Amino acid sequence: MEKNSQKMNVAQMTARINELYHKSQAEGLTDVEKEEQKQLRSAYVANVRANLRGQLDNISILEKDGSITDLGKKHGKQES
After folding, report:
1. DSSP 79
2. 34-55 tens-digit pLDDT
3. Which residues are within 8 A (CB) of 38 and not within 5 positions of it... i.e. 6 or more apart?
4. pTM recorded for the entire structure
5. Dihedral angle over CA of 67, 71, 74, 79, nearest 10
6. CA-to-CA separations, 38 to 4, 12, 50, 53, 73, in angstroms, rounded
7. Cβ contacts of residue 24 below 8 Å, gap of 6+?
8. How many CB atoms lie within 10 A of CB 5?
9. pLDDT at position 2
10. Residue 69 pairs with which residues in a beta bridge?
11. If we measure between CA atoms, which residue out of 8, 68, 70 comes closest to residue 39?
């Protein structure tokens, strides 16, 4: 299952997560589907965090004294 979530784009991942959620509410999930749901959610959260980290690493702040603080350099760009 984990390999499948790595090949999916975010839209496909979201669609499958929603599909599994609706099925769980309607009729329940098998143990395999529960594991797939868990892995998809983890992959989705990891993707969101990586995107947020990328955005934060590219923010620069103009300080009151006119200097520029590069948050990526200040807090260390993290490679995933």
Report:
1. P
2. 999 999 999 999 999 999 988 8
3. none
4. 0.70
5. -150
6. 13, 15, 18, 22, 34
7. 33, 37
8. 20
9. 47
10. 61
11. 8
